[in-house]
Amino acid sequence: MTTLTALTQERRLVTAIPGPKSLEALQRRSEATSGGLGLAFPVVVERASDAILLDIDGNQIIDLGSGIGVTGVGNSAQRVVDRVIDQVQAFTHTCFTVAPYMGYIEVCEKLNSLTPGTFKKKSILVNSGAEAVENAIKIARNYTKRQAIVVFEHGYHGRTNLTMALTAKNMPYKEGFGPFAPEIYRVPMPYSFHWVGDQATITEDAIEMVTHKIDKEIGAHNVAAILIEPIQGEGGFIVPPKGFLPALSKYSTDNGIIFIADEVQTGFARTGNMFAVENENVVPDMIVTAKGIAGGLPLAGVTARAEIMDSVHVSGLGGTYGGNPIACAAALGAIETIQEENLVARANHIGQILGDSLRAMQAKYPVIGEVRGRGAMQAIELVEPGTKTPNTAAMNAITKYCQSKGVLVLTAGTYSNVVRFLPPIVITDELLKDALSVLDEALASL
Length: 446
Ligand code: PLZ
Known about the structure:
446 residues, Aspartate Aminotransferase, domain 1, seven-stranded mixed beta sheet, four-stranded mixed beta sheet, 15 strands
């Protein structure tokens, strides 16, 4: 076995982006793979470590996307690599519901102790965020004996049939893929930047709108669960106004509704708390995790009060690969990294640098309508200067400019006008500042 040395944490371009080898490989990509797959950054990756991606032409690219918020502990984090190698040599698969193994149990113990709430909790593991959301809904419906699910405008929960129905945005996620699952009700989200009402009373007004809709149009006693991202991810890093999540959580409790936090994108230190709901001391009945849990291996979890998780009949939950032993080994390595390297504090430190620098850019460039997010999860919303009209052209121009200079940034937003930053939480200050200087150039070049 060859051992690879870690890549130097610096940006280095040796060809245009994409270089000749990537161009050739991308030609093969388009011949071999479905045209239905998107492509955010047109290079082919050879290796990666921490916050640097090395492409097959030898370019070193700064990763401000973490594979959509996954590699918070860094690409190929050492503790993840070591545990995965040990596990893959020990055994690769048995199926946890056929012959169990310790890794699955240990990851669930970690989830039960790390998630908010002092009550007894239990967990299951599955393969993806969407599968975890599906299971959360199954369990909530089974426990409450109710069917309606309340979700929010601008929300994103996945691409499977049920989770498409839970997701707000039609294009590209839902277009042509219906029919969608029934008993899903979408309610208004207090998106403060675009809120037409009074900013001073946004929380109260939004709660009134949401609870009015639930009470009058659905009937609270028919609602199994309210499902919400504590900071909406794909929708454009929309942070609910202070007090909104606590009020929603209280309304759920008062009405026997399961409050589910979808922490797939926000979880595991990303926002400067282990889980984003902690920011306002919200304790969800159920919490869905994925992405950052396992340092890049496919793993997701559903964690809830024990009585909710135990309400399901034996064999009502499962799946061939859910909680695969290699993914569990990776998760134990990732969680150990988060704890030992104190990545919660590190995410706050990144948040300071990101926030200060993005706000300084906002003061210079009126194309930035708003800077928002928390910790290592922040974004800029781009507008026609002086208005709130979405500026998709600016988003595209900025991402393209960053690309050409070797900085990977991702986009988001219902109006396709948000550039988002989700760096590995282990990114060095120098590398982050270098990436932000490229972003500044991109804005200046508009
Ligand atoms: N819930 C809050 O952010 C995944 C989607 C990328 P899966 N977000 C990235 C894309 O284009 O498909 C996500 C999320 C929230 C659920 C999911 C779904 O997680 O692991 O992609 O299924």
